[in-house]
Design brief:
Oligomer: single chain
Strand order of the largest sheet: 1-2
Largest sheet: 2 strands, antiparallel
Distance between the termini: 115 Å
Helix content: 55-70%
Number of helices: 21
Order of helices and strands: EEEEHHHHHHHHHHHHHHHHHHHHH
Radius of gyration: 32 Å
Number of strands: 4
Length: 435
């Protein structure tokens, strides 16, 4: 065997594959090192654990036996990946890539296993490498699009998904990937309602296309379209999509939780409660659902049960302001005013513009005999929402208890101007006028 010297013009390690002309199944591998010089010292390039550029990959001819071995390693790796044996899967893909470093499918499968094992940076590198070799490799385009969405690079995610759609315009997953990218772009868009709606509508269009192709995972398209509808405020359409997703696959907890949220939004509280119960029966570790269910129990006036759910959520690190505010509202309804003040104060610390929590704390102060602190909270709530009749009427009540008759009359009248049917404000105004 004669090897031209020009083939090894650069220092490094080379793997030479020799195939017999007479017996094709006979294959030999020889490692060949070329040393280089840096000043006066000779060095030998060591193996790089990172993925080398495609330009540095030696194109090699492989025998059918080698190809068969690679295929077997990939198949076994995929089986392990599907069984969530990710370390074993990656090891098998590494073996395949040791035989052929530029094997696109092995690179993709290794990336897929790493992505599912939450090693997303390594996965992304593998999808990039695969696409450097074959720019039209559909599966790698799909997964790189998903990676870009995770990274918040929504425009790049959409570009990859669009490329995948051009390669295979009948794949539901490609439309789902692009729809998810549009949806996440909508979520990330701040202070521009027009742009948000545009991205949500684009997401809905893509999820609708995905549904048309009837992929085996069709419930994902219905669920995701439902989420986009919900963010557009179209709860009835969202509920219809979640229901369809549940009909296709009734063992997915978040389908029920998503529908429960929309039922709560339209005040169908019993239906919402039933769906949260079902979601938690499927997956008891969905901690956020306990908090959401607590809100529903509060609406149904099951205050003790609501407090139990909200407390459990807080103890498991769901500490958003609305969780404390809802538990505070439950304590207020139970006339445990100090507990209500405590929880509302935490909610206000987390969100200083949380009008409902501020007003509820004012009510707790008022009911516990501290109209001065109550007045300060009602002033603050009214400044945040000057058209809310409840805030105005209760500010009037705080004035009344402090002996500020003129200010009280003014506030009750303003409340009735905002809401002429507000009976409590009307009764308070009539009472104060008689004195």
């Amino acid at each position: 065997m004669v090897i031209p010297g020009s083939a090894f013009s650069r220092p490094g390690r080379y793997l030479i594959t020799a195939v017999s002309d007479t017996v094709p199944e006979v294959v030999g591998h020889v490692e060949f090192r070329v040393k280089g010089s840096t000043g006066s010292e000779e060095v030998s390039k060591q193996p790089d654990t990172a993925i080398p550029p495609v330009s540095e990959i030696n194109t090699q001819a492989f025998s059918p036996a080698t190809d068969s071995k690679i295929d077997a390693l990939i198949a076994k790796g995929r089986a392990n990946s599907d069984q969530k044996n990710y370390d074993q899967a990656v090891s098998l893909f590494n073996q395949a890539l040791a035989l052929q470093p530029n094997h696109v499918k092995a690179l993709y499968e290794r990336g897929r296993a790493q992505y599912k094992d939450q090693r997303k940076e390594k996965a992304f590198a593998n999808f990039n490498r695969a696409l450097e070799i074959d720019a039209g490799y559909e599966d790698a385009l799909y997964y790189r699009s998903v990676c870009y969405t995770d990274q918040g690079a929504h425009d790049l995610a959409i570009a990859d998904a669009s490329h995948a759609i051009r390669v295979n315009p009948t794949s539901s997953w490609n439309y789902i990937a692009r729809g998810n990218a549009y949806f996440q772009w909508g979520l990330a868009t701040k202070n521009d309602g027009t742009a948000k709606r545009k991205y949500y509508k684009a997401a809905i269009d893509d999820f609708t296309r995905a549904i048309q192709y009837k992929h085996k995972e069709l419930e994902a398209a219905y669920n995701n379209r439902g989420v986009a509808y919900r963010h557009l405020g179209q709860c009835q359409k969202a509920i219809a999509d979640y229901t369809r997703a549940i009909e296709i696959k009734d063992s997915v907890a978040h389908h029920y939780a998503n529908r429960a949220y929309c039922y709560c939004e339209i005040k169908a509280f019993q239906k919402s409660l039933a769906d949260y119960n079902r979601a938690l029966s499927i997956d008891p570790q969905r901690i956020g659902d306990y908090a959401e269910r607590g809100l529903v129990y509060r609406q149904l006036k099951h205050y003790d049960t609501a407090i139990a759910d909200l407390t459990w959520a807080i103890e498991h690190n769901i500490t958003k302001s609305w969780v404390y505010a809802n538990r505070g509202a439950c304590y207020l309804a139970k006339k445990d005013f100090q507990a209500a003040i405590r929880d509302c104060s935490v909610a206000i610390e987390k969100n200083g513009r949380y009008e409902w929590a501020i007003a509820n704390r004012g009510q707790a102060y008022l009911n516990s005999g501290n109209p001065k602190l109550a007045l300060a909270d009602f002033e603050r709530a009214a400044a945040l929402n000057p058209n809310d009749a409840w805030n105005l009427a209760h500010r009037g009540e705080a004035h009344r208890k402090l002996g500020n008759r003129k200010a009280a009359v003014r506030d009750f009248k303003q409340a009735l101007k905002r809401d002429p049917g507000y009976a409590w404000a009307k009764n308070r105004l009539e009472t104060i006028k008689k004195r």
